[in-house]
Amino acid sequence: MNSKESNDNNVTVSFYKEELIPDLFGLYDKNLHRIESLLNVNLQGRGKNIFISGKDVFLAKEVLNDLYEQLKKGFDIGFEEVDASIRMNSEKNNGLKKVDEELSLIRTIKKTVRARTHSQNEYIKALNSSELTFGVGPAGTGKTFIPVAHAVELLEKDEVKKIILSRPAVEAGEKLGFLPGDLKDKVDPYLRPLYDALEDVLSFKKLEKYMEIGVIEIAPLAFMRGRTLSNAYIILDEAQNTNKMQMKMFLTRLGFNSRMVVTGDLTQIDLANNVGSGLSEALKVTNIIKDNVSQIHFNEKDVVRHPLVQKIVYAYENSEK
To answer: What stretches of 202-292 show up as alpha helix (H) in DSSP?
Structure first.
């Protein structure tokens, strides 16, 4: 690729692999239109060249170059990739992150997961290097999905023998006894988000088989008591709804050759007013432990769902200040 600056508000970018141009532009130029609408620029594609004019021409150039590099590596490009590239290059241009930061990948048989924010990139690096990782932040930041994908990757590589996913069933509470069915029927709806994450990175048949033979286990937090979990990848989701004793119990389940990930949102605590959050205390306690423990904190800029979700999270955070 090459670029030529004609004046402060006009840049020409050239791409030499012509076979990649249709995927870069997108069907009916949808990727270009997305960049135009988000960056307030005008993009005109002619052959191997794209002429950029308007407000954020240099950011648009960075985004196009980034997307082109992703295509060269064999990745597909769509709105999610365009939005992620704009997000990450905006931070880079503002001096918040390293320019040459290499994006981390999680590869499962079904899907390759890429970091879509710099915090997600740090998260994946932490998951690769730490035995205990905390992912804390608002909904839509990938704090649960990313470790689920990482767990499947390690399972497929035979680096762990089992995946255990858990949540504290706070919201079910006393109402569990009034719901129809056995315990699995009662708690499954509350654990549904964990199933959804698994289904995104595993085929249905393989997930069903792993669940049947116990390679993948999804259970309420109470089921962890009295167990030592070795050769396993253990994820505790919605950890802000644990009390201090529950969190201590969970963290001390870690066995040899295991990894543990704790995720939660400290702004979404459903505990009674007089009950302190175990996640909040655990972050303070483990912060002094430097070996094999990582803490990654996300904010509204890391939300990778619908753009409106990011605005809603930001509005709530401002209203609570």
So the answer is: 204-213, 244-251, 278-286
